[in-house]
Amino acid sequence: MTLAPYSAILFSSFGGPNGPDDVLPFMRNATRGRGVPDERLMEVSEHYMLFGGKSPINELNLALIDRIRAELDRRGIDVPVVFGNRNWEPYFADTVDQLIADGHHKVLALATSAYQSYSSCAQYCQDLEGAASGKDIRIDKIDPYWDAPEFSRANANSLIAAVRALRERVGGDAKVRVLFVTHSIPTAMNDHSSTGEPENRYDAQHLKVARAVADLAGEELGELLTWELTYCSRSGSPHVPWLEPDINDRMEEIKDEVDAVVAAPIGFISDHMEVLYDLDTEAAQTAKELGLPYERAATVDTDPVFVSLLVDRLVEWAEAERGERERNSICKYATGNCCLVRNPNQTNTGAHHAAPRP
Ligand SMILES: CC1=C(CCC(=O)O)c2cc3nc(cc4[nH]c(cc5[nH]c(cc1n2)c(C)c5CCC(=O)O)c(CCC(=O)O)c4C)C(CCC(=O)O)=C3C
Ligand SMILES: [Fe+2]
């Protein structure tokens, strides 16, 4: 099999600190020009310091890259998979220079976020475009993959295991509530996510995945799962509205209606700091204080169903590029009509992005 016309894959992610000395410079990178108050910056730095100043994200990404490489090998596709980040080493710019030095001029990127919004999709497109700009290289990015049945399947595998583990503790009759969780974003960013119609937005994408995951898991567990969508990791100024409810607030509200909760982080593909801190530390503590037995479902991480989906999407993108299949791209970034609000103070004109990618 082939990935032609692409000769390399760029695995692109957010980046995170590898030790205490990295924390502040990383935080400055992640918040530059973002209107994140210093107070929040210090607070999140503390979350990293609780874990030795080290985010799990880089090692998890390297492990996923290994599995992608193995799946490519299995299919007889011989292309390198290189790593690049938006906010920490290896930075996109350095990875791109290395790709060019190694003779690559058409590269296919994938991002470690599954959904469409400025932060999770357009910002990757923009930063990759910026890294390639003026250089002898073209970088295309595959679509976000939240809509893939395999993504729901992999998340359902995790939810099934979590519900079973919880029921071992609380019994078959306990009223269990599944709280799907994702990263909150400003409501203005949500309004302009994907193509902007309510049914396509970031929150709606998650509701579709949540429903599919709950249906698949419920079927296999033989129980009708009661679920809802909640958020974590709210940032920004307190005056700016972000998506709600926060998982902690919601647990407080439902504590008398339910006997136990499962947090299912469908918004994260692996155990990023948000999962370790916001869910495994903070939400777990809230549940404990409320007397609610709590179980956190695994992220899809290196589930073979998920790894195989990523490789399928890379192969299909290359096939479409060669004209061997239709391309029904859900990301409209190249036409200037996708996820374009960067923050609530910025209006969505799409004007700077109207030109197709080189
Ligand atoms: C939608 C979304 C994803 C999922 C998609 C994706 O994966 O990209 C995501 C991922 C991540 N976010 C991460 C870290 C941070 N995000 C921040 C800030 C923000 N995130 C936002 C949104 C998202 N973020 C937003 C709207 C802001 C406000 C500032 C802005 O408008 O940009 C800040 C600044 C402090 C703060 O404000 O909390 C930090 C340190 C890490 C690394 C974790 C690790 O180290 O394991 C990862 C994977
Ligand atoms: Fe973030």
TrEMBL record:
Where does the record place it? Cytoplasm
Single Gene Ontology BP annotation: heme biosynthetic process
In terms of Pfam families, this protein maps to: Ferrochelatase
Supply the gene name: cpfC
Name of this chain's protein:
Coproporphyrin III ferrochelatase
A GO-annotated cellular component: cytoplasm
- Could you say which protein family the record assigns here? Belongs to the ferrochelatase family.
List positions binding Fe-coproporphyrin III: S55, Y124
Gene Ontology terms, MF aspect: ferrochelatase activity; metal ion binding
